[in-house]
Amino acid sequence: MAWNRVAVVGAGLIKFGELFEQSYEQMAAGAFNAAVRAVDKGFDPKQVEAAFVATQRGTLWGQEGIGGNTVPTAIGLAGIACTRIENACPSGSDAFRVGAMAVASGVYDVVLVIGVEKMRDKSTEEGLLSRAAAGHPIYTRGETAPVLFAPFATRHMHDYGTTREMLASVAVKNHHNGALDPYAHFQSEITVDDVLKSPAVCTPLHLLDCCPQTDGAAATILVNAERAHEFTDRPVFVAGFGVATDHPYLHEKSTFVGLKATTLASDRAYQMAGIGPSQVDMAEVHDCFTITEILDIEDLGFVEKGKGGVASLDGETSLTGRIPVNTSGGLLAKGHPIGATGVAQLTECWWQLRGDAGERQVEIRNGYALQHNVGGRGSGVSVVNILTNKQ
Q1: Distance from CA of residue 107 to its chain's centroid?
Q2: Within a domain: residue 203?
Q3: Distance (Å, rounded) from C-alpha 55 to C-alpha 217?
Q4: Fewest CB within 10 A of the end CB: N or C in the chain?
Q5: Ramachandran region of residue 367, left (φ > 0), alpha (ψ -120 to 50) or beta?
Q6: Is residue 141 situated within a structural domain?
Q7: Active-site residue, selected from the candidate residues 89, 202, 210, 288
Q8: What pLDDT does 68 receive?
Q9: Is residue 45 part of a domain?
């Protein structure tokens, strides 16, 4: 099927963290302005024809009627078409996919994809994430996000000899990268010993195995590739994308050493892009917990099943490793403002492919970067986007 090629000509984000002093709309405006400033040849915001807003605001705050429709006014574009995308942790990734399809279809030439989330204004005790993860009243009683992911860690340890030191190495690597990222929530180095001695959360996961709750916003500007030259001489293109689902409850899973939705989504994205895992130069993947990144790099085909822990410990995923992963610091260090997460990951991929990542810059050999999220109840949905700098 013929479709228009899509280019990313601008991307940006605000510093992630506990942003009590900023409103939801202020954060959105900050990210949008950052994306506009990033367009090499300048960009008139009035050129935006439609916006796709990724946010969990409805689920988390009980304000479904507001959703993302306050964003156009916040960024000075009241009147444009605006659609809220909510698809669990991959909300931002899916908003990007939908925005790309809107341009690829020819309906629009210029669209904005923006993710924004306020996570810190309410505590977990007030039901912030428990509302988002609500499910069967018996099957899911007492479940939290660590409870959902800990069984994958224990099974991976049982089947493949993965150790807590291997898990910890993921956190150490990502905090190192986060210390180089001015937009990261946490910007300090940690050691394996720090992770092992941090408070237990849900065996075998400890506090530093877990990502924080974070406020943040990020934005990308997508255009029909035939018009990319109007905005930049260094465009990045959408090469492929995939989305897939899996059973939501743990007792329905077919395995605890992999996330089926990720495998399916990545297979579809690779097929669309016409590449394989070996051609990916760097990846931003969903590391809500240390075990998740280990599962991700296996499910995405970067390492053999069962070897994710060893690969992490051996530095294969470091900035100078064979396949750099989470160069931004990942969710563990940069933070996880749900709606903004995927868009921020894509911004990092955009920077890397353009050679603009500063101290975090990795070697780009093949010209491809991969972005991935998995989430929802029991990791029931995954989205993968692949970008390229190939003209």
Answers
A1: 26
A2: no
A3: 10
A4: N
A5: left
A6: no
A7: 89
A8: 72
A9: yes
CATH number of the domain encompassing residue 27: 3.40.47.10
Q: How much is the average pLDDT of 360-364?
A: 98
Rounded-to-integer distance, Cα 56 and Cα 115, Å: 9
Spatial CA neighbour of 331 closest among 118, 174, 146, 197: 174
Host domain of residue 368: 6-124+211-388
Question: What is the domain count for the chain?
Answer: 1
Residue appearing with tokens 């940006």: 12
Paired residues of 283 in beta bridges: 325, 370
215 DSSP β-pair partners: 17
The candidate with the shortest Cα–Cα distance to 388, out of 269, 225, 240, is 240
Look up residue 366 and give its two tokens: 């093949």
Active site residue 202: no
DSSP for 91-104, please give it: HHHHHHHHHHHHHH
DSSP state of 193: H
pLDDT of residue 253: 83
Residue with tokens 């293109």: 237
89 is catalytic: yes
Q: Strand 6-13 to strand 216-224: parallel, antiparallel, or no bridges (unpaired)?
A: antiparallel
- Phi then psi for residue 262, to 5 deg, are -65, -45
- CA 130 from chain center: how many Å? 21
Chain centroid offset of residue 94 CA:
10
Q: How many residues does the chain have?
A: 391
**Is 221 in a helix, a strand, or coil?**
strand
Q: What is the pLDDT of residue 246?
A: 93
Confidence bin at 55 (pLDDT 50/70/90): very high
Active-site residue (options: 156, 336, 349, 372) = 336
